[in-house]
Design goal:
This protein is α+β, with helices and mostly antiparallel strands. Helix content is 17%, strand content 24%.
Length: 555
């Protein structure tokens, strides 16, 4: 039996020791060296080519089947055969050009010259609905594969021109056919033309097309609803069906088109694009479609009267919780249920922000605004997002706003700004003037052009991302058709690992490793930790002694 006096003394010692340890914690204020910086070897980071190889002839100014196609000083230019097909119509080009374009024979057909001014006035466009990064029972990877940035593949639907090929590049590739991409192509027509747009629904869900701001009759020539709204105009186009939309636009301007079936979901999944009605001019063969938007390589006659070049810029946002629902099954019933009843649009938040279907750094490959000094450049902007206002800011320049929603402002009311606001579905026409006068331009260089809502500069929260692009003067364009930068190395941004948060943000220029990740510390035990462990042992020992004494007393 343990003497009572011993127990009393033991517990007094333990209590005093613990109180002293808490009042004067041993080792708390003593210097403890920080853990070393984890080594990050940037040279071993697996990156993509900043500018993938393409046929260099694609960038050259050239004439194909009588169509003048302007130079494209971009890393990833449009296929010039495709541009020629959109200008002349797939029914008016050579067989070689048609095969090179990848289009079906009836994708864009151009007929009679009704007003005798040297260009066709009867235009027929056939659009399909394509799925990108969907689910297949045959492959673990999304197919057809479409990346918006390194390693990033949300699911999308898009209107696409009717093609004659596969949905993938070839039998060996899972990558999407280049005609299948975001945004849905910009449609260009001339005021007064008779337009028939035929939606051939090759998709597994119903769809429609609404022409937003475009002059069109409520009923088409066959007595069917022509506005594309299922609740008021016409029954949605079911899988395997076609529908003809007819119009003869009388007013010019920058408009939109989009699916209006389950619009909150279908528009956000990518079924929207820009619709431009050009001014009527003699011999005005317009580029009827501009796949992927960006540079217009065959501007209209009216544009060339006033501008040196033209760009289409469409901004979109992506909530991956919605977009990735199309990868949860390959049963249309399950996808229909998930997107219409399982997903609550009011709780959605955007994770990715797109310019012309891609996010930085891919925007540098095909959405640069390349200019020369002393030019006037036309920019058509559209906000294809859901509930986010965008505030487009141009570094080094101030732009003049000439049109809102396709309507020209009185010249005396036009304003010059370096931030232009667009609400959802709104369009702006801007004039970018490169005269170095301190107002319109601050001089030649590489100037950022971006949405000034800061989260729009990220991809799933990682900066830099989103719809960042650049105004680049030709004197600052490198041999690989990327801008000559005087800042940090952009190569690490062309890495999947960067957007998986595996690369320290300042690794490309933090040579001393001051801001790298600290190593995880193992095997380091402080004096305080030892003291607390000893105290815990004393307490546990005391408890054992007391329990043993009580047990012996009970027996």
């Amino acid at each position: 039996m343990v003497p009572r006096r011993f127990l009393v003394v033991f517990f007094l010692v333990v209590i005093l020791f613990g109180a002293g340890l808490l009042a004067f914690p041993i080792g708390k204020n003593a210097y403890q060296p920080p853990p070393p910086t984890a080594k990050f070897d940037l040279s071993k980071l697996e990156t993509e080519p900043v500018c993938p190889e393409v046929d260099p002839l694609w960038r050259k100014s050239q004439v194909i089947d009588g169509v003048l196609i302007e130079e494209s000083p971009l890393c990833h230019p449009d296929n010039p055969a495709l541009v020629a097909a959109f200008v002349k119509g797939t029914n008016n080009i050579s067989h070689d050009t048609l095969m090179e374009s990848g289009l079906a024979m009836d994708a864009v057909t151009k007929g009679e010259d009704l007003d005798g001014d040297g260009d066709p006035d009867v235009i027929e466009i056939r659009l399909e609905v394509a799925e990108l990064n969907g689910r297949s029972p045959d492959y673990a990877e999304p197919i057809p594969g479409y990346f918006i940035a390194p390693g990033i593949q949300p699911g999308f639907w898009a209107f696409v021109p009717k093609t004659h090929g596969m949905s993938t590049e070839n039998f060996e590739s899972l990558k999407a056919n280049p005609l299948l991409r975001l945004p849905s192509p910009t449609i260009r027509v001339e005021a007064g033309d008779r337009i028939r747009i035929i939606l051939e629904n090759t998709h597994y869900l119903p769809h429609t097309i609404h022409f937003h701001g475009v002059d069109h009759p409520y009923m088409n020539g066959m007595g069917k609803g022509n506005d594309g709204v299922p609740e008021t105009s016409h029954r949605p186009v079911m899988p395997g069906e076609s529908f003809i939309y007819e119009m003869k636009p009388r007013q010019t301007g920058t408009m939109l088109y989009h699916c209006h079936e389950q619009a909150p979901v279908h528009v956000m999944l990518g079924l929207m694009g820009m619709f431009v009605v050009e001014e009527n001019r003699p011999n005005n063969w317009v580029q009827t479609l501009n796949v992927g938007a960006g540079q217009v390589r065959h501007p209209s006659v009216a544009v060339k009267e006033n501008y040196d070049r033209e760009y289409d810029l469409i901004y979109q946002e992506v909530d991956q919780d919605l977009n990735n629902l199309i990868r949860t099954a390959n049963d249309p019933r399950l996808i229909a249920k998930a997107t219409t009843r399982g997903y609550d649009m009011t709780e959605g938040t955007p994770d990715y922000f797109l310019l012309n279907g891609q996010s930085f750094p891919y925007t540098l490959r095909e959405s640069l605004i390349v200019v020369n000094a002393n030019e006037r450049v036309k920019l058509r902007l559209a906000n294809g997002g859901d509930d986010k206002y965008i505030a487009i800011h141009s570094h080094g320049h101030r732009m003049r706003i000439t049109h809102y929603d396709g309507i020209e402002h009185n010249p005396e009311a036009q304003v010059t700004r370096d931030v232009a606001d667009l609400s959802p579905a709104q369009r702006l026409d801007l004039v970018l003037t490169t005269i170095d006068d301190g107002l319109h331009s601050f001089g030649e260089g590489v100037w950022m052009f971006h949405d000034h809502q800061e989260k729009a500069l990220t991809s799933d929260g990682m900066y830099p991302g989103g719809g960042i692009t650049l105004i680049v003067y030709r004197s600052y364009l490198g041999e690989n058709y990327m801008p000559l930068l005087h800042g940090v190395d952009i190569k690490p941004f062309f890495s999947k690992a960067f957007y998986e948060r595996k690369v320290p943000a300042w690794s490309s220029y933090d040579e001393a490793g001051m801001l790298g990740d600290p190593e995880l510390v193992t095997g380091f035990v402080s004096i305080r930790s030892l003291s607390l462990t000893f105290l815990a042992g004393l307490l546990l020992g005391g408890i054992v002694i007391v329990m043993g004494a009580l047990k012996r007393r009970a027996s």
